[in-house]
Amino acid sequence: MSASIQISPSILSADMANLARDLTRISNADLIHVDVMDGHFVPNLSYGTAIVKACKSATDIPLDVHLMVSNPDDTVDWYIDAGADLVTVHYEASTHLHRTVSHIKSRGCKAGVVLNPATPVDVLEDILDELDMVLLMSVNPGFGGQKFIPRTLDKLRRLRAMCVEHGVDPLIEIDGGVGAGNAGELGAAGATVLVAGSAVFGAEDPAQAVEDIRQAGTRGRASKEA
Ligand SMILES: O=C(CO)[C@@H](O)[C@H](O)COP(=O)(O)O
Ligand SMILES: [Fe+2]
Predict the structure, then answer these.
(1) What does DSSP assign to residue 92?
(2) Transmembrane segments in this chain: where (predicted)?
(3) Ramachandran region of residue 225, left (φ > 0), alpha (ψ -120 to 50) or beta?
(4) Using one digit for the tens of pLDDT, what is the confidence trace for 202-219?
(5) Domain ranges of the chain
(6) Is the pTM of this model over 0.80?
(7) Which of 43, 53, 92, 193 could, after both became Cys, cross-link 173 (CB 3.0–4.6 A)?
């Protein structure tokens, strides 16, 4: 029996005026994805530590904090202090990536690196064995509700092959335009965690949407392992 794909609903698509209520609607999620945008690294501004703290006090589900910020070294501690369980930083925003990843882990937090759609997986060659997670963006970061970039599937297969070659098994998360319709092929291509914002919070029953995406992803993963 194949391991279940994990689902990390993005609260970017939640109703921020009713965040605690919306979190109760996804109590079956494996992680909560918190998109921090600084209006500089990405052309949008979302929220910061106050929302991470609010999530921490409203749920026991681990917080998966996606930092879309320039110079993450300057602020990463804020998010760890606010309650992040896992922090991902963008390769494109980091000058001293190894130092940043080592620092996050030294604080007892899990660490991951995010790649934008145009960044090849090869850049991770010399840091892959340090990572708890690799996050592949399947849209250009900055906004929810965008269309999945199909080329991500090939990139995902290349990342999976690279992990096998290095004998490592980080979580592999896909973020952007994910739903029950493409979760199967993402699971088959090697994803282990799927972020979904609009597909979850835009659904009439968000918990059912989480379950549908998880089942589709897990079926895809099992079909590959069979
Ligand atoms: O990081 C981002 C966008 O920059 C994502 O986490 C989005 O929030 C995903 O939203 P959907 O594409 O699933 O609606
Ligand atoms: Fe994200």
Answers:
(1) G
(2) none
(3) alpha
(4) 999 999 999 999 999 999
(5) 6-225
(6) yes
(7) 193
